[in-house]
């Protein structure tokens, strides 16, 4: 721990006075320089053409507008740089606070409670995700669903990654522009609201994301994708009985999925395998349909083609989501553990990168 922690970064309205003065003076200088060079340019062009310049007209309609545009550009660039510096300071301050809470410097992974309306289910389900995160070397942070957005963002500020767990709810079809199916379960607006806050924070600050089952669906809808509301209604009749996607936790293996070669998921689960097929459990009746912005399909069910995994397309942002439940099999399956280890590794890499970037601009 450093002897003098950075503490909380300044709010946007409490930027140090020296920064305000430097930005203001720089803008004034650029405005004056632009105005000067604009007038000089007018004089030179007039001399070359052998005409007498109307300096009042030239000043009002040429030099002054040119200076205003140039000064505005400088001001915007300065503000952008300052906002970038502020965000870096905010992220580093969160890391410092997390470090004071966790002396072993473990990454902190935010996990929203699975359901707001079924407390019994939520309390039974979340320990599995927490244990999987702990086994991977990180500290799980429960995010309640009954807090205000400001309180949620305060809790997430010190977290390095996000894990979106499963849920007994279904996402409101209105969120992806569809009519409700009779098979669609009741929505959980509180869980959806917290998921959206966590994803907004993760995409804004490039925090790694792992979605599991409902978490995949939540991620896809957040990125403007859509869902199949009930898989049997979607499949042709000859495929409906091939796989029971609602097999539940009692079925250790419900079906097999085929991974896309050269995907992040394939690298995590089967880095040296030639045939990218793995067995998985299954507890869902919905799945991704139209794929959201910045996501791609990286696994499908071998028997009926249902989408089983998505990942982000940005190479500098770890985003992965699987439709099965690896948290149930971390004790006896190396691939299940590898999924959570990949999330934690990405969180550690992001923390290190943030520190390096901040040190380079101090």
Structure explained in plain terms:
- This protein is α/β, with parallel strands linked by helices.
- It has 2 domains: 12-99; 106-349, Rossmann fold (3-Layer(aba) Sandwich), CATH 3.40.50.880.
- The protein has 9 helices and 11 strands.
- The strands form 2 sheets. Strands 2-1-3-4-11-10-9-6-7 form a 9-stranded mixed β-sheet, with helices on both faces. Strands 5-8 form a two-stranded antiparallel ribbon.
- A hairpin with a 5-residue loop joins strand 9 (295-301) and strand 10 (307-312).
- Helix 1 (17-49) packs antiparallel against helix 2 (55-101), helix 2 (55-101) crosses helix 9 and helix 4 (149-156) packs across helix 5.
- The chain is elongated and about 90 Å long.
Q: What does this entry show, briefly?
A:
With 362 residues, the protein is of the alpha/beta class. Helices cover 47% and strands 13% of the residues.
Structural class: alpha/beta
At the fourth level of CATH, the homologous superfamily of the largest domain is: Class I glutamine amidotransferase (GATase) domain
Spatial strand arrangement across the major sheet: 2-1-3-4-11-10-9-6-7
Main beta sheet: 9 strands, mixed
Overall tally of structural domains: 2
The averaged pLDDT comes out at 85
The rounded Rg comes to: 27 Å
Uncertain spans: 1-14
> Into which percent range does the helicity of residues fall?
40-55%
Kindly provide the name of the CATH class of the largest domain. Answer: Alpha Beta
């Amino acid at each position: 721990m450093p002897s003098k922690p950075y503490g909380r970064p300044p709010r946007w309205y409490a930027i140090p006075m020296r920064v305000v003065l430097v930005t203001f003076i720089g803008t004034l200088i650029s405005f004056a320089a632009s105005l000067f060079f604009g007038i000089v340019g007018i004089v030179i062009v007039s001399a070359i053409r052998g005409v007498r310049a109307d300096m009042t007209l030239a000043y009002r309609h040429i030099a002054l507008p040119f200076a205003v545009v140039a000064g505005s550009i400088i001001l915007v660039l300065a503000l952008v740089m300052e906002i970038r510096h502020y965000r870096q300071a905010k992220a580093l301050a969160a890391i410092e606070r997390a470090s004071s809470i966790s002396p072993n410097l473990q990454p902190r992974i935010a996990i929203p409670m699975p359901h707001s309306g079924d407390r019994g289910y939520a309390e039974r389900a979340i320990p599995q995700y927490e244990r999987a995160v702990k086994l991977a070397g990180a500290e799980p942070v429960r995010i309640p669903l009954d807090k205000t957005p400001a309180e949620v963002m305060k809790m997430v500020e010190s977290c390095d990654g996000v894990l979106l767990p499963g849920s007994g709810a279904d996402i409101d079809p209105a969120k992806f522009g569809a009519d409700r199916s009779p098979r669609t379960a009741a929505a959980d607006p509180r869980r959806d609201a917290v998921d959206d806050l966590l994803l907004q924070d993760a995409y804004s600050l490039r925090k790694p994301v792992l979605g599991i089952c409902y978490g995949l669906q939540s991620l896809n809808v957040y990125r403007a994708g859509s869902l199949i509301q009930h898989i049997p209604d979607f499949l042709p009749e000859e495929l409906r009985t091939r796989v029971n996607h609602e097999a539940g936790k009692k079925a250790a293996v419900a079906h097999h999925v085929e991974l896309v070669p050269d995907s992040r998921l394939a690298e995590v689960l089967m880095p040296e395998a030639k045939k990218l097929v793995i067995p998985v459990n299954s507890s869902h009746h919905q799945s991704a349909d139209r794929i959201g912005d910045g996501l791609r399909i990286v696994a499908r069910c071998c028997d009926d083609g249902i989408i089983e995994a998505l990942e982000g397309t940005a190479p500098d942002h770890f985003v992965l989501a699987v439709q099965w439940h690896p948290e149930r099999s971390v004790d006896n399956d190396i691939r299940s553990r590898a999924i959570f280890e990949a999330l934690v590794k990405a969180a550690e890499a992001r923390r290190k990168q943030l520190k390096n970037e901040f040190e380079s601009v101090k």
